[in-house]
Amino acid sequence: MGKRIVLANPRGFCAGVDRAIQTVDTILRTAGTRTDGLPPVYVRRQIVHNRHVVDQLAARGAVFVEELDEIPQAAGSAQVPVVFSAHGVSPSVQREADRRGLAIVDATCPLVSKVHREVLRFVREGYEIVYIGHRGHDEAVGVVGEAPEHVHLIEHADDVERLDFAPTDKLVLLTQTTLSVDETADTIAALQVRFPWIELPPSSDICYATSNRQAAVKLVAEYADCVVIVGSANSSNSVRLMEVAREALAGRGGAYRVDDADEMDPAWFDGVEAVGVSSGASVPDELVSGVVARLRNLGFLEVDSVEGVEEKMHFVLPAALRKRQGRSV
């Protein structure tokens, strides 16, 4: 058997990412020419955490801003459309957009929105919430912002010791959707030792796509000597995939994350017979194709795949966009 590539399935776009990108794409395709000279759409933060996707949409006219105060005021009664990214926003951002009279199109992933709703429900019921997430990540910022005085963010098991709750406190756990199942298991175990009465959410907040991609990468690692994960550095789920691959390889080879094929180092593949390839949930498959083509040039001519869970999830476009189009999707 010659040198080969082992592709993970599923990989790439999840339903939430696909919905967010389609949202901006639809606005760009259907927007008429504005008389005030403003662009067809603004997007707060990266619509998804992949620089190639963002660059492609920007080249078509979308303008990405960090904060809403970067968006100019439209003249008269005209509204400037602004899309909220797949990662969600805090209520303060929603209020600021309303105050400025912006036309909001909320592309928050429905699974992230579920966690926002859980925060509000548990706070109404008198709970303190321990939230496992990455400090500063857009998704975590939005969720904590729902009730910052009641949501206590931790990142690792070591952070559990600094929490202080009495046995009379109603306590529940929620998590960022893009974390590693293995990573959260250690933190959850530490929480349950320190606070045995802590309640788990009704169902795992780690989304189906994250779990499925991690399971597929573990399977790929059984057949590969090293693994390449395609995804941007600020993509939480892509970074987690690399870590899952590294753990699954157990020292048999390296696990690497690249934005695209240009970042690959041929030295990684010295003495390697099989390279596993997967990608984060915000990565277009064309970038994976580029990695495969580069590996073929390096002598990895056979391409196999391992099949995990078949994904059939689909999310409709945001309600504000469906209303603008005057139809149901």
Topology:
Layout: E1 4-9, H1 15-30, E2 42-44, H2 51-59, E3 63-65, E4 81-84, H3 91-99, E5 103-106, H4 110-124, E6 128-132, H5 138-144, E7 151-154, E8 171-175, H6 181-194, H7 208-221, E9 226-230, H8 236-249, E10 255-258, E11 274-279, H9 285-297, E12 302-307, H10 319-325
Parallel strand pairs: 1-11, 1-12, 2-3, 2-4, 4-5, 6-7, 6-8, 9-10, 9-11
The proportion of residues forming helix, as a percent range, comes to 25-40%
Quick one: how many beta strands? 12
Strand content: 15-25%
Q: Strand sequence of the main sheet, in spatial order?
A: 10-9-11-1-12
- Ends: how far apart? 48 Å
CATH C-level name of the largest domain: Alpha Beta
- The CATH architecture designation of the largest domain is 3-Layer(aba) Sandwich
CATH T-level fold name of the largest domain: Cobalt-precorrin-4 Transmethylase, domain 1
Q: How many whole angstroms does the radius of gyration measure?
A: 21 Å
Task: Name the structural class.
Answer: alpha/beta
Helix segment count? 10
Could you report the average pLDDT, rounded to the nearest whole number? 94
Low-confidence stretches: none
The CATH superfamily of the largest domain is known as 4-hydroxy-3-methylbut-2-enyl diphosphate reductase, catalytic domain
Notes on the structure:
This protein has 329 residues and is α/β, with parallel strands linked by helices. The chain folds into three domains: 110 residues, 4-hydroxy-3-methylbut-2-enyl diphosphate reductase, catalytic domain (Cobalt-precorrin-4 Transmethylase, domain 1), CATH 3.40.1010.20; 107 residues, Rossmann fold; 82 residues, 3-Layer(aba) Sandwich (Cobalt-precorrin-4 Transmethylase, domain 1), CATH 3.40.1010. 36% of the residues lie in helices and 17% in strands. The chain contains ten helices and twelve strands. The strands form three sheets. The chain has a five-stranded parallel sheet, with helices on both faces. Strands 3-2-4-5 form a four-stranded parallel sheet, sandwiched between helices. Strands 7-6-8 form a three-stranded parallel sheet, sandwiched between helices. β6, α5 and β7 form a beta-alpha-beta unit. α4 packs parallel to α5. The N and C termini lie far apart (48 Å). The mean pLDDT is 94.
